[in-house]
Amino acid sequence: MLDVAAVAEILLADHPRRDLFCLLIALHDVGKIGKPFRDMLYNGSAQAWKHWEVTEAWLRAESTETLMLKQLGGTFHALRPLIAAIAGHHGRPPHAPDRDWTTMRAMAGAQAEEDALAFVRVCLDLWPAASLSGLRNREAKHLTWLLAGVTTVADWVGSNAEWFSPTSATLSLPDYLKMARWKAPKALAAAGLLPPAPKAEPLFNFALRPMQQAARDIALPPGPMLPIIEDETGAGKTEAALILLQRMLCADKGRGAYLALPTMATADAMFRRARGVVTGLFQSEPSLTLAHGRAGLSVEFRDVRNAAPSSDAPVCGDWLAESRRRALLADIGVGTIDQALLAVLPTRFATLRNWGLSRKVLIVDEAHEMGDPYLAHELATLLRLHAMQGGSAILLTATLPLDLRARLSRAFAEGAGRDFAEDHDPAYPSLSITGGAAIRDFPPPALTKGDVVVDRLPDAVAAVDLLAEATARGAACVWVRNAVDDAIAAVAALRERGIEADLLHARFTLADRKRIEARVMAQFGPEGTGRAGRVLVGTQVLESSLDLDFDVMVSDLAPIASLIQRAGRLWRHMDLRPASARPVPAPVLHIVAPDPARVEDERWLHAVLEGGAWVYPQADQWRTAQVLAEAGDLRAPGNLRALIEAVHGPDARAVPPALERAETEALGEGYARANRARQNTITIEDGYRDGGGASDDAEYPTRLGQETRTLLLLRREGNALRPWSDAPDRAEAEALSEVSASAARLAGLDLPDQNQPELTAFTADWPEWHKVSVTLCIVEEDGTICEGLAYDADLGLLLVRSRTG
Q1: Does domain 2-191 have CATH number 3.10.20.600?
Q2: How confident is residue 803, by pLDDT bands cut at 50, 70 and 90?
Q3: Is the terminal CB of the chain with fewer CB neighbours within 10 Å at N or C?
Q4: Where do the structural domains in the chain lie, given as residue ranges?
Q5: CA dist 458 to 312, 615, 656, Å?
Q6: pLDDT of residue 637
Q7: What is the reported pTM?
Q8: Between the CA of residue 714 and those of 231, 514, 741, 747, 779, what are the distances in Å?
């Protein structure tokens, strides 16, 4: 217990309640004192209550509570929530009712009661400056979220026998604490939890763009801060955020950062970029982790894991890499927004994630992706809790509606304890700090593609004709479709015309997706070659995950925010491919869409887009088509804000009568999602004991959406089965061979019986949780899995109509 407290002293070095917290953390395992725990150790006897529940029982005993309040001052209203926080150090709050506490203490025995009280008395002497003075119940409950998290981290480090080896009981407790304090810094260094000092030297050696200059020059306010960077795609927002981050680290507004991205693909791409930059933030090498469910498959992350420590490269030790939860404790974490949002859901170890984030600047990229009512409430709750604990954040976006910007800003201001003044300044681009300075007067960029003309195509046939003409001129083309099945159909139609077409969507195995992404980057990336006369057909994965550049773009109709993102891949790298080098005279966004002036029924969109008509709300689709028909172009930055507000703002125009029912249903669904978010997220005011939880992550999803089912694809090799991927490591090959699809669409298919002998033999050494998480599917030589389902390495998972209709 003193080992753990010694670790906590360092982790809490700057906290105003440090001594109080460390005293309580020293008592976190006092519930192990007693007969039940000894019987468990010596005889394997089951415990009626876990030791951490007994900790709460000991510290809530009248004699103990009286002793503590006598020395600490304050009231039991402030003490009791804090006791529950340190007792809940195994990732869940104690929930045993107070009527059980007397029984717990009685079962421990009279000697244990005497010993527990004696240890409390010693700890009070070891931290004489600990005080509850001035602490009220409301503030104490707020503090429980941080206290529970730091207790868990300190317990994990202080319980490591390699760093705190067992010692004979010859030292007095004060002398033992001295020794523990000597060991603690070395243990934290070994764990990768001692952040290096920040460095103020310039991060980049290139000429800064206007938004990057603004990030360098804007005045930083005292205390927690929330800058919001709004600029078009490709304007250098990431570099601006890193410049701002460096200044915030030097101003002691965080000891590191977590870069939160919308998807695993965008997180992987950001990790590649961050790896070469983050060492410039610190005076010595920082720890760097990748936090998402497939991090172990990232070649770049494995390189960091395996790299020898040096003075000019980030590192990631075994302790940090052991779990996604610990990944948030690294100096620099890169991962999905989901890993951060779990900090405000009632799941196990949510407070650990919260503690990891509380020491960092939280950078949320593509913040406009959080506009869904469920996600928006989660992010607002996270920003509020983060600010409440002294944390700062940065939001990056190209298309954030003003209402969402105000909502997130208000949540942060409330958490920081500040008054909030609505900011509806529509200027774009914009760098604004909630409650602070703002820069909204930017010179035009030196290199620009100019205005993007918007052209409507009446159907998919017209899109194929246009792409055929463009490829004949040597243009590099892309067609972004809303649905996977439509993308597959588009590739087939293009190939029938003799056009070289590639396909990228989310229904590939990870192995094939990585292979295709590498080929796509080699062709259409900044330095791409062999791009002339080719077409890439893809889905939403093309909006933000890959740095691609096309001469000609076709897109299915989508809400304006998505179209702006997609258009960011059109004539992107003007420094590498100026207008004079392009095979077409100007950038044009061709949109496959029906005429917004002719809406005869609620299936207005379905006649033109098949599966893609179901992906987005009809009202957003119609408004987008209407405002683009009136505007005629995308002018960055000229009309982007106005277009976004016309579709997503509070004064968006009324839809035609034929679409009113669809809009009403969509609004109802939005209210339902927001209500579920309120039910699922923690209530900060309740404190950790009453507001926390112990659920698995899957029980409280970070996002709502169609339920998916994971298939593990296998192929035959002689008389044996092997994963679809040929990776040499078996576990990696299995992970790379997985593909997900809609559970509803798979439900009607006759998928393989998982009790077949050859399938049970394949999973013989799997744990039970793994067996139930995936469905094994054997891909025959012709690609067939079962009737209605097939797989092709270049087309992905094919859900086809059955032969009977």
Answers
A1: no
A2: very low
A3: C
A4: 2-191, 210-439, 452-635, 708-799
A5: 55, 19, 20
A6: 79
A7: 0.94
A8: 45, 18, 16, 20, 6
